[in-house]
Amino acid sequence: MRAYERRGVAFSDLVLLDRKTLLERLKAKKRFATGQRKELWAGTFETSRDLLLALRDGKEYVSTRADASRDELDGVPVI
Q1: Which distant-in-sequence residues (6+ apart) come within 8 Å of 78 by Cβ?
Q2: SS3 for 67?
Q3: Contact 16, 5 (CB under 8 A)
Q4: Is the pTM value of this prediction over 0.90?
């Protein structure tokens, strides 16, 4: 997953997170949101949905919906 980390009032450069790291951070109550950078606005982002850690039948899923039965990020393009 591609991400930008918030560091005070600024954001980091692009970082890559594997699924395991993302799950660990979500379990640690770190907040992630989907969105995109605003063009020509430096570190300004337009966010849309928060990422959630969905639990179903003992399995963990990363999703934008609480009732997910698989990893699913609505509105996020696959790269």
Answers
A1: none
A2: coil
A3: no
A4: no
